[in-house]
Amino acid sequence: MTEMNATTSEAERPDRETLLAFFAGSREPVSLEVAARLTGQLEAELYADARTDGRLAEPFATGDAALDWDEVAYLTIEAWPRTWLVNTLGAEAAVLPPYLRPVDVSVSLPIYVVVALHQQFESARTTAEARRGLTFHDYVARLLHLAIESETVDELRADSDFNEAYDYPHGGA
Amino acid sequence: MARQHKRIRSIFHNRRQFTRANAARLLDKTVDWVDKSRFSRENGELLSWEEMILLAELRWPITEIDRALGSEQASTVPALWRLVELSVRVPAFKAIALELQAQRQRVEPSDLILWGIDVSFDEAEELEARHPGMVDAWSFPYDRRRRGAGWVSRCTEE
User: Fold this and answer.
1) DSSP string of A74-137?
2) For the segment B100-142, what is each residue's pLDDT rounded down to a tens digit?
3) Are the beta carbons of B45 and B19 closer than 8 angstroms?
4) What is the residue-averaged pLDDT of chain B?
5) For residue A98, what pLDDT band results from cuts at 50, 70 and 90?
6) B14 CB neighbour count, 10 Å cutoff
7) Is A52 at the interface with chain B, CB within 8 A?
8) Nearest Cβ partner of A148 from B80, B84, B97?
9) Predicted ipTM of the assembly
10) How far is the first Cα of chain B from the last one, in angstroms, to the nearest whole number?
11) Nearest 5°: phi and psi at B52?
12) Pairing between strand B18-19 and A56-57?
């Protein structure tokens, strides 16, 4: 029972100050400790993934491992429910591109598809994502990303706000 | 729009076979379009009602079909095939892209979302106990007994 609770309990979310200091700060490499606090992942997990993918940043002068800022930014915004992230940043949400903020979209779909979609969300969500509280909305947002064609992106490239959000965090500072 | 809705109702309400020319007229497309878009060419000169429903789904946005059928849907389509509004919160740039892409493809955002969702028969069958009618809705316009034969035929064709 204890073991089950350990795997299904909610992950500790970063507080507003930690998020603000990171997103509004200089884009310097990030220690594994801070990256773990921001992303809700274990330091060992982050280290192993980054090493496997060759994404480790230059080590600090102390020799400690570090991750690039944009790598941690990407993991952080994907880790948590987007609405929670924006609400937590509150008035300071401007540290993120404006078009990353969630908006309501209403669509009409057959009932059986909506039922199946909810089931697919429950099945596809990993234990780690469930612990971080990723929502049905976040799941649909990911599906939507796959549906966006390159022609559409090319056409929207003239909109700097779109560009900033689409490329974030890999675009300009 | 009224004429289009009348055509949709005519297709959905009257189970019958259609000549290629009549299918083209009702779908407001050319015979060539019908020939290229058909799902069951083995039916030859005549299109089955089921094939015609699939072409109608290809021809018009689902929301347009829903509007055309209106309150008469209960007697025409399975209960869980009917539309329900789904409200989701997604990043603004994705909402903007969805809107633009729908305009470019002359469909509605709902269609783009629908095309991106793949529901398998196994999923529908698994959900049937909790949501009676899933299999009927998934199988439409085929009924669940005939679905098997139709499915095999389509796979063989590919």
Assistant:
1) HHHHHHS-HHHHHHHHGGGGGGS-GGGSEEEEEEEEEHHHHHHHHHHHHHHS-HHHHHTT--HH
2) 999 999 899 999 999 989 999 999 999 999 999 999 999 999 9
3) yes
4) 89
5) very high
6) 9
7) no
8) B97
9) 0.87
10) 35
11) -65, -35
12) unpaired
